Amino acid sequence: MANMLQKLQLTGLASALIIACLTLPAFGQQGKTAAGYPEKPVRLIVTFAPGASNDILARLIGGKLADEWGQNFVIDNRPGGGGAIGINAVVKSAPDGYTLLLANSGPSVGAPMLARESSYSPFDFTQIVYIGYAPLVILANLSFAPKNPKELIDYAKANPGKISWGSSGAGSSPHIAILLFQTATGVDVTHIPYKGAVQNMTDLIGGQINLIYTTTVSSEPQIKANRVRGIGVAAPRRVGLLPNVPTLAEYGIKDAEAGIWYGLQGPKGMPRAIVDKLNREVNRTLGMADVKARFEQLGFEAAGGPPEDFDKLVKSEVAKLEKLLKAGLIKKE
Description:
Structural class: alpha/beta
Helix content: 40-55%
Number of domains: 2
CATH architecture of the largest domain: 3-Layer(aba) Sandwich
CATH superfamily of the largest domain: Bordetella uptake gene, domain 1
């Protein structure tokens, strides 16, 4: 009987050792994957054309990561489909950290939530790091009578539905900003969706529409050239690029802050070790003096923080849109 017990114990011990030996290479490989990443070029997909704010940020952040790690971060511009073309390439890729997305609020959250059918959802991503935020600015055609937020509200209330307010597309961040402005002030305007920001701005300058919402970096050269007028910034404080344009808050308009957030996302299921490595390096990059200076030039507010902060931001954006949908202020298209 004793011999039988000894044999069983030895058999169990041998089995445990075999399992341990089989398991060790797996753990070693996992550690190597995180420590050695990236071992080949990383593709950073941008859902806008070269020169857009997403593209500028991708090249800035990607360049810094390439310098630090000695691997290329290849910028892959895939505009079109409201961001769906580029995003689908990301969500369908292997979650190994070699295909990433320079994301913003419109394509990643607004587009899938406001489409009747979408090939992805706001939760089909691994949230890596919240990069920054660009407040939006109300721009007016020079022939439009109101010159500040109060005059705009007064005019809109006296002329319900007669103000034409363009955006870069249904579900885009500027479109959501228009809805927030209407909700905060009780005015009624007519939304004119465009297929992109360029034609939106062109028609504003040409007088085909009265107003648009756009970023500070897009606003600044047009205001300086006296092609458009800055009415108000949807931010808690004035921005350095546009020191003479007041904020909506200065005129007592609450709950109308609006902007475009930017972040680094990957396909769902990325290893946490790779996520943490990317997060740490992007956070370090955001603290660099030259990056801070470039952000200031672009009118961006740097963010940073752990992946969990970015996840909370995405969830809050989803909740904001769900509220607008339930209130009937916006419809799926």
